[in-house]
Amino acid sequence: MDDNILLAKEDSGILTLTLNRPDIMNSLNFSLLHALRDRIKAVRFRNDVRVVIITGSGERAFCAGADLKERATLQPEQVKEFIFTIRNLFTSIEELNKPVIAAVNGIALGGGTELALASDIRIASNTASMGLTETRLAIIPGAGGTQRLPRLVGKGKAKELIFTGQRLDAQEALKIGLVNKICDQKDLWDECKKMADMICETGPIAIEQAKYAINYGMETDIQTGLAIESNAYWVCIPTEDRLEGLAAFKEKRKPEYRGR
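RESULT FIELD:
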């Protein structure tokens, strides 16, 4: 089973990673965390992959969080190792030099919502259910939820959701900005693919630098953020892609960006 615990499919610059434990709602155990970690690490230096989509197997769940059956067998030191592993993995997803789209195809609780939060864009089916429910198990979100959720939806709303362990349906998640858009379950892949295709039409170095500027600029004051943006822009100026973009505009044709 471990050999197929994470499915990978590539198509026209888009890498789709599917958490494949549908019998237990794609919950996260050590094996799945390690498989996802290795995939994310391997894709960082691949110029042929432009966008990563992460989703769950089946229509019931995106990811129901940590595998609590495995958790019940772990000693306290092993629990610490699990939290260390998942926190670092989700940070590596957030910091990946390519856009990551979470295709939230169903239940996404605890670590499942934290995985979506670490992604750049969240598109959910109208059957999705999201929430940081850890306090109901007498613990707190440990994979970035206490930090990423308030940055996305505001401190007050994040406290409300974490303190109560409340679950949100897709409409509620959209209303507070937890997801970018929602759609029918049958249309979820097409919507994610459409978004990924649009990103693939842009300059890859520009996307990498834009993501860097947004992520790090948001963590500081606006003047420092503007300096980060300026430095990111300078990286784009000497690229072949920038000249190709200008030439394509002048010649009224579609640009062919090569990440150089």
